[in-house]
Amino acid sequence: MSKFSEKKEYLLNNATYKLLPFKFDRLNSQKYVLTNLSGEFTVIENHELEKIVNQKLSPEDSIYSHLRSRHFIYEPADKAAIQLLALKARTKLSRLANFTNLHIFVVTLRCDHSCPYCQVSRQSEDKAAFDMTKNMADRGLDLVFRSPSPALKIEFQGGEPLLNFELVKYIVLEAKKRNEKLNRDLAFVIATTLSLLTDEILEFCKVHNIFLSSSLDGTEELHNINRPRAGKNSHQRFVEGLSKARLALGFDSVSALMTTTEQSLPQVKSIIDEYLRLGFTGIFLRPLSPYGFAIKTKKYRAYNTERWLDFYKEGLAYIIELNKSGIRFTEQYTSLILTKMLTSNDPGFVDLMNPAGIGIAAVVINYDGGVYASDESRMLAEMGDDSFRIGHIEYNTYEEIMLSDKLLDALENSFTLSVPMCSDCAFEPYCGAEPVYHHAVYGDAVARKPESEFCKRNMAIFKHLIELMHSDAEAKQIFLGWANRC
Amino acid sequence: MLKLGGKVIEIQSPGAPNSSLYSISTNKELPRILRATKAFLVSDAEIPEGFKHYIVLDHLKNLINNLPSNAEYTLLSEDYSYISNDDVIRISKEKSAIRVLYRANSPNNGILITEQCNHYCLMCSQPPKAIDDSWLLAETSALIPMIPRYTREICFTGGEPTLFGERFLDILRLTKSYLPETGIHILSNGRSFKSEAFTKSYASIEHPDMMIGIPLYSDDPAQHDYIVQAKGAFDETILGILNLKKLNQKVEVRVVLHKQSIGRLKELCEFIGRNLLFVDHVALMGLEMTGFTRANLNELWIDPYAYKDVLSDSVQILARYGMNVSVYNHQLCLVNADVLPYYKKSISDWKNEFIEDCNSCKRLSECGGLFSSGVQNGYSKNITPFC
């Protein structure tokens, strides 16, 4: 007799496995996808689901090993599985303990562009009406440094923040002065079209390690249609500003975002090519948001979710082909979702957070001193709805702002683990609460999910990504790289 | 293969105890006060007085006449001609045997703590014995102070060293005290660290450069348990890793590749990326053709050539998770090019060889070669010299 025991001696007998918390949904007509609370997913055949749930799997079934190692089921003696699952769940939520990181200062609403999809900007010379004051900036910094977060990011938005660069300078210097004693990990970003960059501004950005976040919608023709300014040269100014800024600040210190308009829809490849041509290593394919002028000018309704999804999928397919041919290039929204799907980390992207990111991940100090729960919240206010205006920087205390009913109610009501249809959705681990969007479009922070375009769009993306990974091993390897870059 | 132990030709040491450890010296100018505990390695007719013991190689046996009067000595075969200054040896009088315990010129000094183990791995290269071998601990306590301080790293191995509990930790404390600049690598199955108290005690040593290499052979607990022939081992090993990392101890995960572990290797790497991202190093290791491996060859052997794509994918998965990954014990001609950034020449010098076909290979110097046991007992038929 051999002194070694056979495999079957190590399989469960005289007992049955137990289920760990998981959710499921149809992936397509033949398959289900299961997800657990740490975001692990597995794809199974339709007929396997009942067997799993009714504890009828045999330890010899190949899927048994997989479900056990991925923490969907466990055996009575397994202690490590529970600990690992708890550890991963804690890791996913660990960001919450830090509280607000991103603080947006809207230093002016004035802008040299008049983009029809823009939510807020004004063509105006009236500085008094649309610029933030120094006193507001001081009180804004009080708010920033009340956050317990060890890392603080101050982002300047507009309008075009460079039109009130004196205040940007003031806030940067003042924040750094206060930080000498407080020692936070402090970072600065200016959201700018780059059209008004000067050597003096770049020098200041260089000295203070300020990043620039800009906008690029595609080819020169498309970009200039989407982003009109006097002189019709937005694209040219962007390209000139980009190369100057990269030279001064470092290649990776300038990023760009794109917005999808009706004109963009047929040309996703040429949009991506434009990003490639300009040396970017990724693109964020972004649908129009239903706020501000986008609604007024009817841009938002110019295409539906299905049309945008086709655009996204075509773009993603092209980007995957690029990667297969050896060019490293990512789709950034996909990367954020993949981090949730393939790792135990959470990228902390405000639109895809639960509890929602409003207030507790990001907060906005508007040009007029209003404090808003998110960037979208202040855009909503420009449409006359101040539901997410959670205080005023000069008249309310930190406690009044952060404990305002407006904020807490929205956070609580939209919590996806309790919201009808979210709480039992298989894709909940990848999704987010987004109370502001749902309020803006459907009138309440929760809305009926079957009617939600946010839900429809994201569910389609989640399913698409899982199917891609299931059917294309090379794509899965590429995605693993994207998932871990965040 | 270097012969690290065996019979000697002759021992003359009437006054010495049955078993003695000696530090070797080749220094004729060694201060007399330091000679009393050392063995002098004879190289020519000029032989200094006052050493505790003298080592003479067979080809110099005529020099025995030149030894100081009444000198104790051991005559060794030419197998031991590699012995050099600062090495430490054990001379066993009754058995008429020598064992080289430490080699100053080698980067791979392993110290066997015990042959007992609570695993019975299908591919164990050092088959466990259920015996009381705590004399090995006592010997290690004597050995550590004899090892030179400049030693870069030593490895404690078994069996399962932690089966001695606190007594093993005492060895680590002793090592930190005598060899503060020497890194320590420990090979353990990690199960003892499921005890928080034991892990705390281990962490309290506060060694600045100490890592535990812990084997994990599958993401499927049943398969891991089968490979190590111990029910519940996977669970305890994982709990051990978690306890160690909770206390910021360095942990390496070691995966030996064979037919039983290749099947879910990619899944294992994904498991590591999702669950054990905080381990410090992952080593994917070729199989050593010795010990139990030979008894279980049918269950274990798979040509590395046949799994090279699985190896590539697995390495890429770990690399994409940002993990520190190495591929050990593989021949260069049996891995894909994408593995090269992670490829290490890892086989310990004393058991590292090449086969004849390798002589014509243009990349011999980059290659980690084979285990001596592989050369003897079987290796891939797909080894092909680069030309």
Concise summary:
Helices cover 42% and strands 13% of the residues of chain A. Chain A has 486 residues and is an alpha/beta fold.
Q: What is the topological layout?
A:
The complex is a heterodimer of chains A (486) and B (387).
Chain A: E1 18-19, E2 22-26, E3 31-36, E4 41-45, H1 46-53, H2 62-69, E5 73-74, H3 80-93, E6 102-106, H4 127-130, H5 134-146, E7 151-157, H6 165-182, E8 185-191, H7 199-207, E9 210-215, H8 220-226, H9 234-249, E10 254-257, H10 268-277, E11 282-283, H11 292-296, H12 305-324, E12 330-331, H13 332-342, E13 362-365, E14 370-372, H14 375-382, E15 389-392, H15 398-402, H16 405-413, H17 435-442, H18 453-471, H19 473-483
Parallel strand pairs in A: 6-7, 6-13, 7-8, 8-9, 9-10, 11-12
Antiparallel strand pairs in A: 1-5, 2-3, 3-4, 13-14, 14-15
Helix pairs in contact in A: 5-6, 7-9, 12-18, 13-19, 18-19
Chain B: E1 5-7, E2 10-12, E3 19-25, H1 32-35, E4 38-41, E5 53-57, E6 73-76, E7 88-92, E8 97-102, E9 110-112, H2 135-143, E10 153-157, H3 166-178, E11 183-187, H4 196-203, E12 210-215, H5 221-228, H6 233-246, E13 250-256, H7 259-262, H8 265-275, E14 281-285, H9 292-295, H10 297-300, H11 308-320, E15 325-328, E16 352-353, E17 370-371, H12 372-377
Parallel strand pairs in B: 3-4, 4-5, 5-6, 9-10, 10-11, 11-12, 12-13, 13-14, 14-15
Antiparallel strand pairs in B: 1-8, 2-6, 3-7, 7-8, 16-17
Helix pairs in contact in B: 8-11
